[in-house]
Amino acid sequence: MTLIPWRTKHPDDTPREQQLSPTGGFRSEMDRLFDSFFHDAFNWGDRPWGAVGGWGPPLDVEETDKEVAVRVEIPGMSADDLQLAISGNSLVISGEKKETTEKPKGGYVYQERRYGSFRREVALPSAVDADDVQAEYKDGVLHVRLKKSQEALPKRIPIRAT
Question: Which domain holds residue 20?
Answer without folding.
Answer: 11-41
